[in-house]
Amino acid sequence: MALNINEQARKEANLRLLQRSMDQSISNILGNATHVVLYEFSQDSQSWEKSDVEGSMFLAERPSGYLLVILNRNSRDNYPMELSPDFQLQHSDPYLIFRQQIKGETVIRGIWFPNASERIAMNDMLEKTLEDLKNNPRPPPAATDEASAVLSTLLSPVTLGSVGNQNNTSIRQDSPSQQTSQPTLDKKSLQLALLSLIQDERFLDLLHAQYLKVAHARANRNNSNRTGGSRLMAENICSVIGWDLLLERLVAGLANVLFD
Fold first, then answer.
1. Taking 90 as the threshold, does the pLDDT of residue 117 lie above it?
2. CA torsion, points 33, 37, 42, 43, in degrees to nearest 10?
3. Distance between CA atoms of 237 and 222, rounded to whole angstroms?
4. Spatial CB neighbours of 125, under 8 Å, sequence gap ≥ 6
5. Residues ≥6 apart with Cβ < 8 Å to 136
6. Sign of the alpha-carbon dihedral angle for 136, 137, 141, 145
7. Rounded to an integer, what distance in angstroms lies between the CA atom of residue 60 and that of residue 69?
8. Per-residue pLDDT tens for 203-213?
9. d(CA 138, CA 62)
10. Angle at CA of residue 124, ends 98 and 117, nearest 5°
């Protein structure tokens, strides 16, 4: 009985970890392996290449489908693999080999398992999961398009102009065409959109670039205050400070969504 309680507690702890580090919508862990190593097949050299990804692997379930995740012990970047009906599985001791179409290209990956029983159990669970996907295909998540719409809205010149000039007496107004083009999301859709955005490398790159601009603007502002800089520099800084407020609100909102 104690063993079952310990296993359940461990599963719940792993579930919370996946929800924090990967996707809050993950609802269940179907299987796991203590340690695996990821290999990638190079089409150019026609050979296997060991990656820098290794660690515990989980087969997780979420409303949009199934997800394989390797919690990478070599870096902070974990390795997710979305399962789809075209996902091909091959069991070749001591590996599980995956073949999948990603953005029109065939990607072949191999997972090395030092523990044979874990490999066999994972293979059986993946076969059942893939069979379920083929018989009951999941609809594509709507959050992807909404995420793009939210990102477009947040980063549009109109939005930035409004935020940047919020302390001025005159604020730019949207034209009728601009007003109708802005997406309107309910709270749940916005939550899903933000979860998608936080996993989008393009969004993170853009957000980080703007953060750097804010940091540089703060440094310039401090230097200006110490040296009595010109009014022009202050005006240029103010045009960026609006991003400061936007970033703070966005980060605070994401934190509430991800860790609530």
1. yes
2. -10
3. 11
4. 30, 31, 59
5. none
6. negative
7. 8
8. 676 777 777 77
9. 10
10. 95
